[in-house]
Amino acid sequence: MEKTKNKLTSFADHLDSEYGKRGTESREVYEQEFESFKLGAMLQELRKEKGMTQEQLAEKCGTTKTYISRIENNASDIRLSTLMRIIKVGLGGHLNLNVSL
User: Disulfide-capable partner of 89 in 29, 61, 63, 81 (CB 3.0 to 4.6 Å)?
Assistant: First the structure.
């Protein structure tokens, strides 16, 4: 049996290989989808830290359980005004944004 060497690559190199360099269309699509995923995961984690169900959060901020579920599962775009309401009214927090160029 022939031994093969493990070839380790950095995550950045993996992304370049799988999705192209930053600035390419496929990489930009990946980056946007990943940011949406992170937002959904963050909202789900915050909701659970508050001990709330999706239904309770939805009721508190004036939306539906289905909409909260779609956001948490990365299946829906979210309006900034809705995100701000979920965080402020629903979770009692404040939204801070960063822009990188």
Answer: 61
Written in H, E and C, the secondary structure of 42-58 is: HHHHHHHHCCCCHHHHH
Domains of the chain in start order, with CATH, are 11-90 (1.10.260.40)
Output the pLDDT for position 77.
Answer: 80
Look at residue 9 and tell me whether its pLDDT is greater than 60. Answer: yes
Q: Where are the alpha helices (DSSP H) in 1-101?
A: 11-19, 25-49, 54-61, 65-72, 80-85
* Residue 79, helix vs strand vs coil: coil
pTM of the entire predicted model: 0.77
pLDDT of residue 4: 61
